[in-house]
Amino acid sequence: MAVRSKEELSLASVFMHTLSNLLALTAAEEPRSWPTAAQLAAAPEHDLVASPVLFRMLQLAVLPEVLGENAGPTIYLAAKRFSSALELTSILALKDWFHEMHLGDLEVEIDEERVLVKLQHCLTCHGLPAVGSPLCDFERGLVDGALEGITGTEVLTKETMCWGLGDTVCQFEGYAGEAPGYLYREDGYHPEAQRRLLGVIAQQSEVALDNLNLIAERRAQETRDPLTGLYNFRHLREHVAAEIARAGRYGRHITFVMLDLDDFQKANEEAGREAGDEILRHWAAALTAQLRGADLVCRYGADEFLLVLPETAEQQADSALVRVLGAMHELSVQVDDRQYVLTAAAGVSIYPDDGKTVEELVAKAATTMFTARATGKGKFAFYSTPAST
Questions:
Q1: CA 255, CA 361: separation in Å to the nearest integer?
Q2: Which of 149, 181, 250, 300 makes the best surface tag, with the fewest CB within 10 Å?
Q3: pLDDT tens-place string over residues 10-21
């Protein structure tokens, strides 16, 4: 099994933690290790922005893919338990909270015989195609849990109208019976069975995530420079071999650029090795940001970087280096109240004019870099046209 990207690993991590939190919600008296509702409400808005499409996908596609028919009851139970943390003390407060959270426009009727809730513009289902099933387990769980806190008695409603059923409003109903509370007794769910199922899934997910982490760490050690996170030369060489083969077939050019920081040794001696490492990290990140998605970059030596620019001949390389070196010259790195602005010397060789192998082209780029440095800081030169720029 291979890890295709950092995003894949990140998704696996989010998935595992989501299942763990759901498991905690379905377990009686299980201590929570996540933020409280008050902490969530107090967080800055820009930290809490979420796409309604993503919300729907999580509720209606991601969890059902894993939990199947258990997804709806699990979401309902989780939302119901969560709502108790909101400490809503009146129906008006519940309606205002739904409006504030953009969950929809809520109407609640409650008397000694029944509870009737109508929800207009429901975030879960409004505007979706009718699928023939009620969809709003999350909103129903929030309402039932809040009403239990307000009335002091059990509330277990059923969704009898929904946009997913072809209706224009979502409606939840519950009725008073012999036992205290408002129950729609046809609705049966099994939280203990769900808890056990979630427990197994959470354990399996944790094992899978550990394996993904081990694979990702091993691949990172094999392919990445530990300080900058850039490719190491061995891994870059493998990519470049494929680029050279492709360029040879189609008669294209590839530009090789060897960069070496000016005065880095001086900065390293003045500020110390840790500060020097910080400068290199900033410089590597800024350099990568200036390149195209198809370009390759690696840390070649202590303060040397090798760039490989596919589909780039001399004229395009000249323009690219003017832009990249100009932008890097404006980069200021602050370390321990000191500002460091470092330029770089660059040597350029071009496939196939200057060589046919990776080793030959890298060697010529490195030699030309020393020629450029002799003419001044921040200069670059071409192997075939050695006049500096």
A1: 9
A2: 250
A3: 666 666 776 677
